[in-house]
Amino acid sequence: MKELQRARGLTTGRLDARFSGWSYDLLGEYAEYDPQDVAITGPFTAAFNNYVRDELKFGQDKVYHTGSDEAGNNWDWKHAAAEKISVFPGSPNVEGDLIQAMLANPHLQVEVETASTTWRRRSSPPNTPWSTWACRKNCEEHSSAIYDAGHMMYLRDEDLAKLKSQHRRLH
Length: 171
Description:
Layout: E1 10-12, E2 20-22, H1 35-55, H2 69-73, H3 95-104, E3 110-112, H4 117-123, H5 129-132, E4 139-141, H6 157-170
Parallel strand pairs: 3-4
Antiparallel strand pairs: 1-2
């Protein structure tokens, strides 16, 4: 985040390198903030508050915190992994949760726009419980759609249009 554009006095976004912002400490080793977070947090918070308070008529007396370093520091990263797969802390495997949700609701539709390694691994081999479920037919993988904005495709107008088009074809 600091080194890529250090000569220009800029910090690069951590989750989305298309975002840049001024570096506060040009000699510092670590970025003081994430320019991508600064760019999207305000609009997302405003949209959320508008939706919850104005449309849903809920939470006028509530305070919504968009982020919390305290919560992140106290998070329990030891989520139970499916098949006892060792998962690096900070990247919990929620595959088991998806399996349970699909078993509980066989009508649940799952759309995967950019297939992950876990998803592809679950698509094969043929004799795993995953591939034999009746609800497996409710899963659509669209790895052919590549989004320049990555997993936050809705931040780039062209990718948002592509996502909308993909979704329309399915439904």
